[in-house]
Amino acid sequence: KKKNRSKWWDHFKRISETIAACKYYKTKIGCDTKNGTSPLSNKIKRCKKFSPNLDMKQKLIDLETKTLVNADGTTQTYMVPKLWEFDHDLCRKELDKMIIMDELLFAFVECEGFLAFCKVLNPQFVPPLRTTATRDCYALFIQKQNDMCSRN
After folding, report:
1. What Cα–Cα distance (Å) separates residue 1 from each residue in 4, 13, 50, 92, 115?
2. pLDDT range class, residue 115, cuts 50, 70, 90
3. pLDDT per position as a tens digit, 69-92
4. Is 67 helix (H, G, I), strand (E, B) or coil?
5. So what's the pLDDT on residue 10?
């Protein structure tokens, strides 16, 4: 009997030589050796009970500060709950702005300390490689340049 060496087999139980069952939903999937483990990885990446897929789109409750000016001129500050959802594209745009404003090296995004910081801050955010950061910053520069030309 062959040993299952792929990490995807941790989430499946072999029923026969060509059939495996998902440990989460018990659905059966073909696992013929000619296809490799691609069907298993594709299935687990879509599985809603697989722990890395659970919180990808989950909204969190955040508190937003609101200030109210009363008729007598006094101000009152209070907290209002709001829904917050992780937006990977927005994080990348803000990272690009930070690189430009703080004049950081593009290689900064691959530094060990920055990667550890991002992992603690939000594990869902995967920082881009330096080549992608360079391309993103250049695209931002071209966009700003076009915006300035269209105003004139």
Report:
1. 9, 14, 27, 47, 41
2. very high
3. 888 888 888 888 887 777 888 899
4. strand
5. 82
Task: Give the chain's radius of gyration (CA, Å).
Answer: 24
Query: Terminus-to-terminus CA distance in the chain, angstroms?
Result: 73
Distance separating alpha carbons of residues 127 and 88, to the nearest angstrom: 9
Strand partners, 20: 14, 29
Q: Which two tokens stand for residue 18?
A: 């060509």
Contact status, residue 101 vs residue 77, Cβ threshold 8 Å: no
**pTM to 2 decimals?**
0.50
Dihedral of CA atoms 6, 7, 12, 14 in degrees, nearest 10, equals: 20
Averaged pLDDT score across all residues of the chain: 83
The angle at the Cα of 29, spanning 41 to 10, to the nearest 5 degrees, equals 50
